Amino acid sequence: MAVRDGSGQCNATVRPVWPKFWVGIALQIRSRMSRQSTRERLEPVLDPAEERLTSRAVLGATIGNILEFYDFGTYSFFAIQIGQAFFPATDSFASLMLSLATFGVGFVTRPIGAIVLGSYSDRAGRRPAMTASFTMMSAAVLLLAITPSYETIGLAAPSLVVFARLLQGFALGGEVGPTTAYLMEAAPAEARGLAVSFQPASQQIAATAGALVGEILSLTMTSEALNAYGWRIALLLGAATLPFGLWLRSVLPETLHRPEAPVLVTEPGGQSRADRRIMCLGFVILASCTITTYVTGYMTTYAMNTLHVSAPVAFGTTLISNAVGIAAALLGGLLADRAGRRLIMIWPQVTALLMTYPVFLWIAESRSAFALLGGLGALTLIGTIPYSAFYVSMAEGLPRNIRGGAFATIYAFAIVVFGGTAQPIVTWLIHLTGSALVPAWYMLFASAAGLFAMLMMPETAPLNFRPKNDPS
Known about the structure:
Elements: E1 2-4, E2 10-12, H1 20-40, H2 51-77, H3 79-86, H4 92-108, H5 110-123, H6 126-146, H7 150-153, H8 156-173, H9 176-186, H10 192-220, H11 223-240, H12 242-250, E3 263-265, H13 271-297, H14 299-305, H15 311-339, H16 341-366, H17 369-397, H18 400-433, H19 438-456
Antiparallel strand pairs: 1-2, 1-3
Helix pairs in contact: 2-6, 2-9, 2-10, 2-11, 2-12, 3-4, 3-11, 4-8, 5-6, 5-8, 5-18, 6-8, 6-9, 6-11, 6-12, 9-10, 9-18, 10-11, 10-15, 10-17, 13-17, 13-18, 13-19, 14-15, 15-16, 15-17, 16-17, 16-19
């Protein structure tokens, strides 16, 4: 039997030739030298025995993720106001489209940031890559918040905004991979699922925070004030927390060289092939997750434009789905630690697949608040659980030396290809067919593809913490 160590290499079992006494002496000397060299380093390194550092590490990675996704999403919420400030046009529609096009520019640089910062995290460490990503995001947010309007500095205003969006996209592209790898490596083996689940949960928290800030500002400010400077307040609220986030990340302990629990390799000598297989399956699953997430985020527009429900009910769908998504993401990670990765990926995905069409049929026919909020909430609850298990499964399945870069790159390309096109495709298909069930069919297609890939994913839970009935 071959076992993969933390560096991703396959090592055959070799009989020790030294007497046990001398082996013990050698291990003690090496342990003392390792502790001494660690104390002499300037960088803090995570000690497996210091579990209190695990909590701080998870908090630091999660807070940074929340702040970055909040800043990235706030632009989307205030797209109309930003368009009026930086992209004046002959009509409001043209101004909005220019603003949305600038928002889309941020997706272009995501894969570049994923490749550059992700691979950097595999060479230099998770902490330097996360700190660099957060620093670039901080600069982009401040630039966007303080840039004068088009009326003040002319063409320089939209040019600076486009540059800020490119920098934001680059930084965010390099955020997810190193952060996910860090969360997995910082956690004890029996709690990896819960730790990594803070990655998708933090994105939901950021979306909820951005929506709440936007809602509060829109209710407390006049439309003139909101258009003039309200959106700047929302961005500066996020920027106010940036010094704390930078400090927190700068003192995080490093995890790149931390020992890991062994993972079984089913094909000795075929590690490269196994890595490519996991990356291909991961791309399909992330594409499925991206489509489901973006279609769910489209439900506010869908409820108002297609179902013609009231605005409060329509906006309530976003808050309900985000709140349920936070709880479901954490629940998925917790269950993955108890029952293994594959079971928690597969069975909730099957359930969500069977629920999707009946739920949307109920919503489309009744067009009631209870159907919209209750049905979508239940679907979000079940449908989010498998992806938390997948996050930790893919992070565990990738060798340490490519984990950050591979995860970041696959995630970024899935977002660019399927996230940026999901809502336009659904809108176009609804217009083409006139059917209110288009989101259901699109989500069914994505969920089926994701389920097919999940069925081929290996069990990656550490050998010592797998369920007793796990056959692998």
